[in-house]
Design goal:
This protein is mainly α. Helix 1 packs antiparallel against helix 4 and helix 3 runs parallel beside helix 5. The model has no long low-confidence stretch (mean pLDDT 90).
Length: 171
């Protein structure tokens, strides 16, 4: 059988470099944010904006950097807004539970951590600085956490505190 583009899901999957992992991870995260949008999140505009930025983050390592300082500034401002609204919920570790949409934001947060980890792993193997992308990605991870808290707050669901047996209080 003659192979065509129909047999190629993504042209860079054969590469050994981790840049392709960045692209796969960001594609997965953007798709998951699309799922959260389809579920009817109360944070629709914010999630739609973030999904767009994640798709720009996708090509920002192999192609031109498309995440700007203005993007990071906007994300930081909205992060601080949501964090302020949820100060009473930010007391230590919490279980990733609550409203079903909050749970999905927690899953997206885990995906964002993988994106961030991969950016740290590839930062020294690419010619351009990834500092702006890493800052955005680190902040995005924290932002998705406060999105989960906000969804629970809006739905009058309390966070359930997790008490670790691995770390002493104050560590």
């Amino acid at each position: 059988m003659e192979k065509s583009m129909d047999f190629i899901s993504y042209p860079f999957l054969h590469e050994k470099e981790r840049i392709v992992d960045h692209e796969v991870l960001t594609d997965e995260l953007a798709s998951y944010l699309g799922l959260i949008l389809a579920m009817g999140t109360s944070l629709h505009a914010e999630t739609e904006w973030l999904m767009d930025k994640v798709l720009h983050l996708n090509g920002s390592v192999r192609g031109m950097v498309a995440i700007t300082p203005a993007d990071t500034k906007w994300l930081l401002q909205d992060y601080r807004r949501l964090k302020e609204q949820n100060l009473m919920r930010l007391d230590g570790f919490v279980y990733p539970t609550g409203h079903v949409i909050a749970c999905h934001y927690h899953v997206a947060r885990g995906m964002a951590k993988r994106v961030t980890r991969n950016l740290h792993l590839i930062r020294h193997s690419v010619p351009q600085s990834l500092d702006e992308l890493i800052d955005f990605s680190e902040l995005m991870t924290n932002y998705l956490f406060v999105c989960a808290l906000e969804i629970n707050r809006l739905n009058h669901i309390d966070e359930v505190r997790f008490h670790s047996k691995s770390y002493k209080k104050g560590e």
